[in-house]
Design brief:
This protein is of the alpha/beta class and 430 residues long. 35% of the residues lie in helices and 25% in strands.
Length: 430
């Protein structure tokens, strides 16, 4: 090993440029902290001619990113290409096989292939590090892996997608429709041109799958995550939530249950007096509950060049210092295949919004269905009257099983007096 930690960077988008700027700006400070230089020796991206706003002349350009894996002058590869398959996956696999450590911000790849890559890295005696893959600049993976290692963790949950949090907070503040706020977020650069990964919950689900593995010592299992997005949240729902004492957030939740580990991402109503209800803008927040530490809360910027580059740099510093911890908090050979709780086993309170014909007997019919499914009503809201016209009817119900709730909703939807499918949001008491 050379005195300097020689780095190859693949991918020169916003994050890649941010990493180069950070390592350049803080070169002397990082040298003091690591006892060795962190030196970028080579970079790779698809378009060599593109102006990225930084001077790249001091770095050797490599046309094919895959070549970084076998470059004898590189000790660690930083993969910032993205995507769960293709060149990103090959680059990481080949780098590990060649005895190089890897740092990545690629949550999709880790969510789909993290367990296999961890086993390969640990067998090869190299590091696979991905602090930047979850919650940006919040050091949540290090916290779970290291600082909370003495705790049995029972749950981890939080706001893991800044785009969704911005949209929901803006809808709360302005009363605007989802589509209008999404367009605003795209104009500000908070949402991609194709926002599906964010607003449909996929991005948060990738991050949750990674957090679940670290928290519970199990294989990463993205396919077991229940995923719903925020497209169906309306200003009406947000207004009713406020009246009921809640705010709507897209939460990612992993929790031990009697049926196994549940993993779910979906809009939630959370009590307005809880800290997570007040996390605004593009910020992320993560809550970890352990048996000795009780509840710990982490909050910060979850995306962007600076926060993500900060997390990449932290991993590079660990490698430069020679620090090596199990990739997923336990040796990869000890990762277990967890029993995952199906969504039908979920139990909790619910918010239900119905559009109904305002006539006598409607509520009695709905109440009878809920009674037959053992669903207990907690509260009911109906503002004003409009005989024989459509009016919104809002119910909250006490703790109910998901299966019973779905059965009741299917029957309610078939009533002639219910004019559109019931709209449901789970309530998280926290």
């Amino acid at each position: 090993m050379s005195t300097s930690l020689r780095i190859g960077v693949a991918g020169l988008g916003t994050v890649g440029v941010g990493v180069i700027e950070l390592l350049t700006q803080h070169a002397a400070m990082l040298m003091r902290r690591c006892g060795r230089e962190l030196t970028i020796v080579a970079v790779s991206a698809r378009d060599r001619s593109r102006d990225r706003g930084i001077d790249l002349k001091d770095y050797r350009w490599v046309d094919e990113a895959a070549a970084l894996a076998t470059d004898p002058e590189i000790d660690v590869v930083v993969e910032l290409i993205g995507g769960s398959e293709g060149i990103a996956k090959k680059l990481i696999e080949d780098s590990i096989a060649a005895g190089k450590s890897v740092v990545t911000a690629n949550k999709a790849l880790i969510a789909h292939h993290g367990s296999d890559l961890a086993r390969a890295a640990e067998q090869g005696g190299v590091t696979l590090a991905f602090e930047a893959a979850v919650a940006g600049g919040i050091p949540i993976l290090k916290a779970v892996r290291e600082s909370l290692a003495g705790n049995h963790i029972s749950s981890v949950y939080g706001i893991l997608n800044g785009t969704c949090n911005y949209i929901l907070a803006a809808m709360q503040d302005s009363g605007s429709e989802f589509a209008d706020v999404l367009a605003e977020a795209q104009a500000l650069g908070y949402a991609e041109e194709d926002p599906a990964f964010d607003v449909d919950g996929i991005d948060a689900a990738h991050k949750l799958a990674i957090l679940t593995s670290l928290a519970f010592g199990c294989d990463v299992d993205f396919d077991s995550v229940h995923v719903e997005g925020i497209r169906n949240v309306t200003p009406t729902d947000i207004a009713f939530a406020e009246e009921l004492g809640y705010r709507i957030k897209l939460l990612a939740i992993a929790r031990e249950t009697e049926y196994g580990i549940e993993q779910r991402v979906h809009p939630c109503m959370v009590p307005a007096d809880t800290p997570i209800a007040h996390v605004g803008g593009v910020f992320n927040a993560v809550v970890v509950e352990g048996d000795h530490v009780d509840r710990t809360v982490f909050e910060g910027r979850g995306a962007g060049a600076g926060p993500t580059a900060s997390a990449v740099a932290a991993d590079l510093v660990d490698i430069a210092r020679g620090l090596q911890a199990p990739t997923f908090a336990v040796p990869a050979s000890n990762l277990v295949t967890a029993e995952h709780a199906a969504m039908e086993h979920h139990r909790g309170p619910y918010y239900i919004r119905l559009q109904v014909v305002d006539r006598p007997g409607v509520m009695a019919d709905i109440a009878a269905i809920l009674r037959d499914e053992s669903v207990s009503i907690e509260s009911l809201l109906q503002h004003g009257r409009s005989p024989d016209e459509a009016v919104p009817l809002v119910l909250t119900v006490h703790d109910t099983g998901e299966r019973s709730m779905n059965s009741a909703l299917a029957k309610i939807d078939r009533l002639d007096t219910v004019l559109e499918p019931p709209h449901v949001i789970r309530i998280e008491p926290l």
